[in-house]
Amino acid sequence: MEAFFWKILFQAAIPNEGKRKMNRIVKFIRTIILVFLVGVPFCFLRTSFASQVMQKSKPGIEAVVFDLGGVLIHTSKMTFIREIGLITLLKYILTLHNPKLMQKQMFEILHKIEPLDSNGPGALSPDGKQRLPQLMQDWLSGAKSSVELLEKANDFVDAGPGLFDSGTQQRFIRTALNVMFSPKIFTKAISLFARAIKFVKQCKERGLKILVLSNFDAESYELSREKYPELFELFEEKNIFISGKLGTIKPDPKIYQILLDQSGLDPASCVFFDDQQENVDAAKQCGFNAMLVERKKGWISSEPDYDSMQKELDRLVDLQRQETMQVQEV
User: To pair with 301 at 20 to 30 A between CA atoms, which of 24, 123, 196, 286?
Assistant: First the structure.
């Protein structure tokens, strides 16, 4: 009723020409109000939707995380054989023992010295066929030094002749253990893969952050760093994560979380390269983009398939770029 009254008053008080102008003004105001009422919520919804898409999309690839052994460096079996001694090895073979089973026999001895922790991370031997002995896990995590490990192993070997087929086997196993768990001999046996430095540099030149996450005892790491400064100086010290300094080993999820916490990286922004399947699987469970590094056989030796590593890195970077473009289009 009140609205009707004001309408009558408005018509009576304003001349016809004025009424027409006023009607145009009123229509214009109505249009502005309509656009505001409809357009603002639409813009809000559109912005909200784009925000949700951006939140769901993966962050861009920012970093490459490298394992050391089997990815950037390798060990020479011939170095270990020379350190054990050809005569010792020949005596071992002549007593009808297969040297290819040496690792298996040593692992069996180590398992007897200290049983596996059922709650351990589940680390495997380099060939992925055996559980890594608890003593070795303790050594790699820094819980035991090489001196402590060898003292315990040698005492067991010396006190248990009934564990061996002969005195020759006993002496051989003792020598092999002392060679295998010597940081100096281990460092002597390691070498860089031919394309290791070049590949790391290529990643760095792309503007990617480069990190190391490796199962390495602390003493061997320091000696290796001194031996190959041309490799380790490519990495910032704060970006090198060594199990012997962190108190745990791969594939324990804790070690991946330590890297993320200290580097501030999102796991989805990282590409992780490792030559052990269980480590790759654990990294994926933690949210990393992870790839198993396989060997590419050559005429004389084999090395990691850096071409496949490069392709996987390119694929992940391109995928992220496409997702970013789709979000921008929204």
Answer: 123
